[in-house]
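Task 17 of the worksheet. Students: predict the tertiary structure of the chain below and write it out as structure tokens. Keep your answer in the requested format; marks are given for formatting as well as content.
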Amino acid sequence: MHNYDNNDNNDTSQTPAPQAPMLSQQHQERPVRAWWRLVFGSGSGQARGFLRFWPLWEWLTLRVMPHHEIPDAPHHLFEVQFTHVDAKPITLSDGTHIKRRDPIAILHVNSRVLARIVNETTPWQQLRMMREDLQALARWVAADGFPSDIHALYGYTLLGRSAPRLGFTLRRRPSSIRTRLDRFFLMGIIVLYHPGGRDRLAHGTTYETEPVETWMSLDELLRRYGDEPAAGSPSPVGEGDGG
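Model answer:
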């Protein structure tokens, strides 16, 4: 479900945290490519046109690369997949160095759950729910059962604008055929599961956004979301999330 670059040059570039919440929407309508007209009527999990291939691809990838639910997560917004890195190396802000073939936990957003809550909650509430699920992930990491040789979380998304608010480091990927294909697939996921369907692409900035990698070391996860966070670490709810 994720594609990677195979350049082995170390990359420590980070993207500053933006100020806009992840799922906020602007009212300005933007033009989208003509082929998205072929999926008219898609949304809320209903596929039309060429999007009928998306659920099949998801089913196949889940059989080959199963996802695992986070134990006792209150909202089930995330699932994890255990695999190995096939990306260029990165050194995170806390000094954790990840190189090719290192064990990794890919953090997947549960699109069905996110689509269900997007019209029922504010962006700040969505961030709070994600933090609560990350707290559950931190408890799993600290307990028995989570692979001990994994040192970082990885993700790949079009909706990464608020990932730094959750503690993730962003890394852009160079333009390539793989990057463009991944962007097309991720847009299809949004159209398939968002209640607004195709119209979601015509509003906000998602259609013009390039996919980004999201990274967080497990040490940083435990520091931010563990039961006993280190002194000076942000609270689970976070500043400004009160409404």
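Marker's comment: The beta strands are 68-69, 78-84, 90-91, 97-98, 103-109, 152-157, 169-172, 212-217. The two ends are 34 Å apart (CA to CA).
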